[in-house]
Amino acid sequence: MAYETITFAAAERVATVTLNRPDKLNAFTATMHEELRKALAEIQSNAEIRAAVITGAGRGFCAGQDLQEVSPSAADASRDLGQRLDRGYNRLVRTLRNLPKPVVAAVNGVAAGAGANVALACDIVIAARSASFIQAFARIGLVPDSGGSFSLPRRIGLARATALLMTGDALPAERAADWGLIWAAVDDDKCLAEAQALAKRLADGPGLALGLIKRLMNASGTNSLDQQLDLERDFQRLAGMSADYREGVAAFREKRKANFAVR
Ligand code: T3D
User: Fold this and answer.
1) Coil, strand, or helix at residue 36?
2) Which of 62, 74, 110, 248 is deepest in the core (most CB within 10 A)?
3) Structure confidence by residue, pLDDT tens digits, 66-96
4) CB–CB of 107/130 below 8 Å?
């Protein structure tokens, strides 16, 4: 499929989606939302694809909403940002969180506003050492969206989350890793390769179990311990009946590497 604002490539069961408006630091437009929806639908439905990487072209990951595409107005229902969120970012974040396949963000450069929070909606975030995360919303008189007010306090605590959200200060990648906001900060020239290698490992892993782990992580944000224990029991029941579990135990007993991907 030909895209205008993203590129899509698949190799070795890993899809790589690249936000591709480098002159504008890959800021989101309506077309980019539409194209991402198509790309994620392809990742969801194509059984040959078992994991995905999202990255950005050029020196940035994504600068959030394209501010040339918006037209702030005092009172105009047609410019209702809530409606825009429902149609765009909320849909995108829900799709990423509900995709039953692992998604790795390769944050190659600055990630600002919705760009930062879409990265954080991926399952694992690897960032280039020179990258930074900017909750830019308050800088332009907005509140956080795309799940930032959900994910930040849970990952780094209220004190740090509130300060980042209120000041809009840039959080460098290494500090983001130290604080537990992301998985790792790596050398700039290794960011995409490391993300793809990790995605390949996941693509070769036990797909059912990885999809269920993702659902456990989603639920752990709001579940009580009792609810989470019940969910773990239900999912373990499913995983325990899988061919992957049989293969995993057989491989352990035979002292070899499990071969999940052959099925
Ligand atoms: O409307 C809705 O749907 C509501 C939802 C909102 C969600 C949001 O994401 S709100 C937050 C929007 N994003 C921002 O406020 C960030 C704006 N960008 C910046 O603050 C800076 O660009 C950065 C801190 C990210 C990077 O700074 P720097 O100095 O490295 O780069 P730059 O020179 O500012 O940007 C390079 C080019 O990208 C430049 O274009 P030009 O002048 O060379 O033609 C700049 O205008 C463009 N650019 C950067 N961010 C955006 C953008 N163009 C459009 N929209 C952007 N968000």
Assistant:
1) helix
2) 62
3) 999 998 876 655 579 999 999 999 999 999 9
4) no
Q: How far is the CA of 160 from the centre of ligand 1 (A)?
A: 23
155 Cα–ligand 1 center, Å: 25
**Is the dihedral angle over the CA atoms 219, 225, 226, 229 positive or is it negative?**
positive
Q: What is the end-to-end Cα distance of the chain in Å, rounded? A: 27
Question: How much distance in Å is there from the Cα of 200 to the middle of ligand 1?
Answer: 32
CB distance 63 to ligand 1 below 6 Å:
yes
Instruction: Work out which ligand 1 atom sits closest to the CA atom of 24.
Output: 38
Q: Each residue of 9-50: pLDDT tens digit? A: 999 999 999 999 999 999 999 999 999 999 999 999 999 999
Residue 88 Cα: closest atom of ligand 1: 3
Q: Closest ligand 1 atom to the C-alpha of 64?
A: 9
Which residues are CB-contacts of 227 (< 8 A; sequence separation ≥ 6)? Answer: 219
| DSSP tag of 65 | B
Tell me if the pTM is above 0.90.
yes
Q: What is the pLDDT of residues 219-243, one digit of tens each?
A: 999 999 999 999 999 999 999 999 9
Ligand 1 centre and the CA of 136: distance in Å? 9
**pLDDT number for residue 263:** 46
Residue 133 has pLDDT above 70, yes or no: yes
